[in-house]
Design a protein that fits this description.
single chain; two-stranded antiparallel ribbon; 1 helix; 4 strands
Length: 112
Amino acid sequence: MVSLTPVQFIFVPALHLTLTGSFEYHKVFGALSISPDAPQKPLALDSIFLIASCTKLMTSVSALRCVEKGLIGLDDDVAPHLPELAGLEVLDGFDSNGQAKTKKRQNAITLR
């Protein structure tokens, strides 16, 4: 665990922005580690690090911005945008051996 005093500052932010259309901006800032004992290697565009549950917030905000712009609806089927979900089955219980039983979905998967 890193112990910081109030006067210490660690520069962590990273930015990788890609907009569809004619504008793309790729830039990263900061170091791979926030630990003062670790080597301070700079971030690269292909650096990988965990952001855990932060992705849920970013995905939700992005989806709701698309709803706000009228690009998608809350009750629209997501399969045209996420084709891997089109044939997804749902859990229907377990057999006598404890194996999961699935069945075809009756309803579309939506943002709501």
